[in-house]
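[Structure tokenization] protein backbone as discrete codes
[Encoding] learned vocabulary of local backbone shapes
[Protein] chain in single-letter code, fold in tokens
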Amino acid sequence: MPNLRNVTSTYNRRSSTKSYLGISGLGNVLLRDNVKNMVMELNRLNHTNTTNDNATKANKTIRRNSPIEDNDNIKDKSSNQDSSNKTDVDIQRDDKHDGHKNKADKENERKPNVTTEVEENTPIYILKPCDGCQGKGIKLAMKIDDITSTMEFDSMICQQYITNPLLWNGYKFDIRFYVLITSVKHLRIYIYNEGIVRLATEKYESPNETNIDNMYMHLTNYSINKNSENFNEDLSKQSLERMNKFLRDVHNVDLNALYARIHDIIVKTVLTGYKPILREYLDTFKNYVYREACFQLLGFDIILDSHCNPYLLEINKNASLKRPTSIDKIIKTNLTRDLFSILNLNESRLRGDILRDNLNYNTYKKHIEYEINNRGDFNMIYPCTSQEQYERYIIE
């Protein structure tokens, strides 16, 4: 069974599209006529896998489709999500998942329900404009015709929708991580210690024909949800620190193991598009031997499923530093401060070395030492001690 959750395909009606870090090259480029065949094949494979499984196996399908290998250190106590244990990050009960079941319910669980099983494993797709931002133009699709008709006139990215997201008080959420690339020629990748958790404004329900167009339920973008009548500025965004407490206290998650997997996703994604970027960099900045000619701050959006498996939703090549909420002000002010520090963007450098490549190797080593010693809350995730295992992800 292929990893359907990890399939991301891009259809672009223009001859070529360039984007920083080769984002457009991360998916399979398809001709419009092949989109329908791709979706039909995914449905066929998914149907073949599920019709031969019983209900217990079907419940494990989501975990098997994880893009990262399962890690025993990450534990999801799903019963805790519906328990009455009190924490300062309390999760609300959901009656339909109540742990108290009568005898008739238990008897029904033993009976295979083919109709329900197929419905639960029917893939839902999410379509995103290739050049879009802030949730604009995003659509969910349940039928092949909806996908092909949308892609006929627009350049779109088609992804399989995560239908079982981890919920916070019943609401869907995702996490924005800030990733800094300080060097292209000698690749160095940092991740910021703090991020922003973004929540939807309507309680989540699995997509169906009634709610599939409800973007306040299925999307977490601030620019979308601020228009909801349920919008609450203090609740729309949370700090990464508070989310960590929620994951640890409610779901007993090993945070070190979880973040190792998230870092792994980020490194592999950057390396996949690294070679084309390096070639363009070397061609553009031919005279730069040691001096770094540029940097990039990226926004990686990650979502967790109900088993606390991380998935990459998308990458924003120009992460917004706007500060519409109090959480934004705190985190992005510190982020900007540390960004100036690690890049050594002081007045003397702007007047001098940044304008010419006047470094020798010894000065370059001192530059690296300065970067590491003045990184603030940035942590380097590449190069790393297990660097050899990533070589196969560097694609020509």
Observations:
- The CA atoms of residues 164 and 230 lie 22 Å apart.
